[in-house]
Amino acid sequence: MELKQLEQNIGYTFKNKELLENALTHTSYAYEHNKESNEKLEFLGDSILEFISSKYLYSKYINLKEGEMTKVRATVVCEESLHKIAKMHNFGDFLYLGKSEKKTGGNSRPAILADSVEAIIAAIYLDGGIEEAEKFIVKNLENEIKQATKNVGNKDYKTVLQEKLQENGEVKIEYDIISETGPDHNKHFEAQVKCNNKILAKGEGKSKKDAQMHAAKNALEKLR
């Protein structure tokens, strides 16, 4: 598909089309075609995303305390939210993937799609400035932020799971990191949660904490 369709989807037209192409270039494709991957853009986009979301929370939700803002930001700036954005704009249709990555469904893999959103954010910033990047971030995350602020006082998934599993007495709950991939600036973790040595569910995330939380969430969904 032509990239101008993606530009229409995200509501931004690039002056430098090479930036957009770079943002969509996965390491597998870059290796096969001797091109630069989107990893450096991901690195920059991650920082921009954290800054803009922090700024938005600071100015928009003046009643939130520092700890509450941190919790909301962590809930929103995560693989799950970024994956939703990528799916909403059909990023998977435009990714440049290597042959094996394409065969194994890389264009629908949450981690790859989430990374591409961060890369697009950086590309928009480099092409059009911080205001354009901010427009994209706020437009795509404000509903997620609004929802997260409503739940800011609620217990996290690990706490809820622990309480549910211990309703009928003490049980042994363990979280294990079963895989760790990616470069230092862009790690990806997979975790599993066990109850009395029985695996309940697995989860993925960009930090060990996110992966464990996602595993707890998936376990709760199964139990329900």
What does this structure look like?
The model has no long low-confidence stretch (mean pLDDT 92). With 224 residues, this protein is mainly α. It has helices at residues 3-10, 17-23, 27-33, 39-60, 66-76, 79-88, 99-103, 110-128, 130-150, 157-165, 208-223; strands at residues 173-181, 188-195, 198-205. The protein contains eleven helices and three strands, in the order H-H-H-H-H-H-H-H-H-H-E-E-E-H. Strand 1 (173-181) and strand 2 (188-195) form a beta hairpin. Helix 4 (39-60) packs across helix 5, helix 5 crosses helix 9 (130-150) and helix 8 packs across helix 9 (130-150). It folds into two domains: 3-150, Ribonuclease iii, N-terminal Endonuclease Domain, Chain A (Orthogonal Bundle); 157-223, Double Stranded RNA Binding Domain, CATH 3.30.160. The longest helix is centred in the N-terminal third of the chain and has 22 residues, at 39-60. The chain has a three-stranded antiparallel sheet with strand order 1-2-3. Helices cover 60% and strands 11% of the residues. The relative contact order is 0.13.
